[in-house]
Every structure is written in structure tokens, then in C-alpha cells.
């Protein structure tokens, strides 16, 4: 199926690994010219893109510098994927609300919400001119506020609402904005030795491998397995393609059936 992406230009944030890398690879394979943004540029990302920007997107200056570079390199932006998210493992606790610090809240909000606000604000003039598309990568945590570290679910809920606001304001002007909300995905957040999965395993007194095996049951995943980054990337790629021209303001969940309500 021709997704009508040949020659389109795209910016993908948080692109060095996981979902972001898979999106960059998928868009490139579909014919788009992709610029990736991450704090660390990996060899895998270099293979998938025409250029990359090493940048801290948890600051307004970083997001603006990324878009400025993309406009210079690409001549304009057709697609913006606000994928950067999560948070640094050394800046979070797994305790309750009273255990969380203002620094943790600010960190989650900067990484998961304001990075998208800043990048979108900078890219919108070009996206409006080209009648482009934005996808914000949120999380099912936006619908499950008690899940995850304090501040993370709240930041993702705000990101989902932000996408809806953008779709209402800029949809009539030709810019399509949608949200993709993954459930548990096989990225370093769960599989990495220093990230949330490993921290949860230690807190439960089990091995990391035991936790990973138990995740489908713990989350009630109807498919019996967690999602993979490439599956999320396929959905994102479709959403920004010409085949999804009238999908606007949607929040599409890809979670193997974790959320049980319609």
C-alpha cells in the first residue's frame, strides 16, 4: 500500500532507540526524509535518517534549536512526531504522592508535556504552510492515573489533552493532530537494567526476567504479550500518511487489550 509519504519531511523526537527509532526507520522506509532528535545519537539512528540533532528536549532552547535545524536541513516540515518521553531513572521514586518531589514533577512535565509544546510551537508555521500532520506519543497511563511513578501519568494525560486542543484549533486549517497511546512496550523502560522495570522487580523481590514474564498477567493484557516498538511505529506511520487523511483528534490505544473500557 502506498502511504503517500515519498518526499515528505519528518522530525522525530526521542529517536535514538525504542519507539522513536522504530518510527524514524518506518517513515524512512516509506519514503520520507527524516531528522531524528535525541540527547545521544546512535549508529542505528544515523542509518535511518538524513540528519540528526543531539539536543536536550526538556528545555525550550533545545526544542527550538531542533526545529531551526530541521527547517534549514529539510526546507520545511510536513510531519512532527512528539515521541520523547519517559524520564531519567535517577530522578524518580516509586513511592506515593507524599514521597514525590517537585523536581520529579517538573522533570516529568518538561520531558513528557512541555517538550511537545515547545517543538509544536516552533514547527507549526511550517506545518500550517504544508498542511502537515502531528502525532503525539502519549500512554495508556493517561487513562490509568494510579499507574506509574507520580507525575508521569499526569503529564501524559496533559499531553493527550494538548493533542485534542491542537486538533480543534488547527484541524480546520489543514494540520492533522492525533495521539497514539501505547501500553507496555518492549523498550528500555521495561527491559533496561536501570529503568522502571528493573526498579519494580527489585521492589517486589523478584528477578528482572521474572517481572518481564509476569507483565502480561499483571497488566491484564488480553493478547498475552506486550507490544513491540515496530508495532507502535506502524500505527504512527499510518496516521501521518495520506491514507489517514480524515483521522483528526483521535487518541488511538495500542495496548494488547489492557484497557477494558470502550
UniProtKB/TrEMBL annotation:
A matching Pfam family: adh_short_C2
Record keywords: Cell wall, Secreted
Catalysed reactions, semicolon-separated: a (3R)-hydroxyacyl-[ACP] + NADP(+) = a 3-oxoacyl-[ACP] + NADPH + H(+)
Domain of life, per lineage: Bacteria
Family annotation (CDD domains): SDR_c
Presence of the UniProt keyword Isomerase in the record: no
Main localization category: secreted
Cellular compartments annotated: Secreted, Cell wall
Matching InterPro entries: NAD(P)-bd_dom_sf, SDR, SDR_fam
Family under the similarity heading: Belongs to the short-chain dehydrogenases/reductases (SDR) family.
NCBIfam families: PRK06523.1
Protein name: 3-oxoacyl-[acyl-carrier-protein] reductase MabA
Originating organism: Nocardia amamiensis
Organism ancestry: Bacteria, Bacillati, Actinomycetota, Actinomycetes, Mycobacteriales
Amino acid at each position: 500500500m502506498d502511504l503517500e509519504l515519498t518526499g515528505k519531511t519528518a522530525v522525530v523526537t526521542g529517536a535514538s532507540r525504542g519507539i522513536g527509532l522504530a518510527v524514524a526507520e518506518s517513515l524512512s522506509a516509506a519514503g520520507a526524509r527524516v531528522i531524528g532528535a535525541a540527547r545521544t545519537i546512535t549508529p542505528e539512528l544515523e542509518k535511518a535518517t538524513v540528519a540528526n540533532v543531539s539536543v536536550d528536549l526538556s528545555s525550550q532552547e533545545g526544542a527550538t534549536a531542533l526545529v531551526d535545524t530541521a527547517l534549514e536541513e529539510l526546507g520545511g516540515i510536513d510531519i512532527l512526531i512528539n515521541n520523547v518521553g519517559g524520564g531519567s531513572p535517577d530522578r524518580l521514586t516509586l513511592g506515593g504522592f507524599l514521597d514525590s518531589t517537585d523536581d520529579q514533577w517538573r522533570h516529568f512535565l518538561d520531558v513528557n508535556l512541555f517538550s511537545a509544546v515547545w517543538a509544536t510551537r516552533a514547527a507549526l508555521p511550517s506545518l500550517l504552510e504544508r498542511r502537515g500532520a502531528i502525532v503525539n506519543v502519549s500512554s495508556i497511563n493517561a487513562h490509568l492515573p494510579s499507574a506509574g511513578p507520580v507525575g508521569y501519568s499526569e503529564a501524559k494525560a496533559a499531553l493527550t489533552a494538548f493533542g485534542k486542543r491542537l486538533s480543534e484549533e488547527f484541524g480546520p486549517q489543514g494540520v492533522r493532530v492525533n495521539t497514539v497511546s501505547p501500553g507496555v512496550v518492549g523498550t528500555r523502560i521495561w527491559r533496561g537494567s536501570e529503568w522502571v522495570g528493573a526498579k519494580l522487580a527489585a521492589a517486589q523481590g523478584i528477578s528482572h526476567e521474572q517481572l518481564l514474564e509476569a507483565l502480561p498477567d499483571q497488566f491484564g493484557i488480553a493478547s498475552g504479550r506486550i507490544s513491540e516498538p515496530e508495532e507502535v511505529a506502524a500505527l504512527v506511520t499510518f496516521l501521518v500518511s495520506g491514507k489517514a487523511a480524515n483521522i483528526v483528534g483521535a487518541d488511538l490505544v495500542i495496548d494488547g487489550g489492557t484497557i477494558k473500557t470502550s
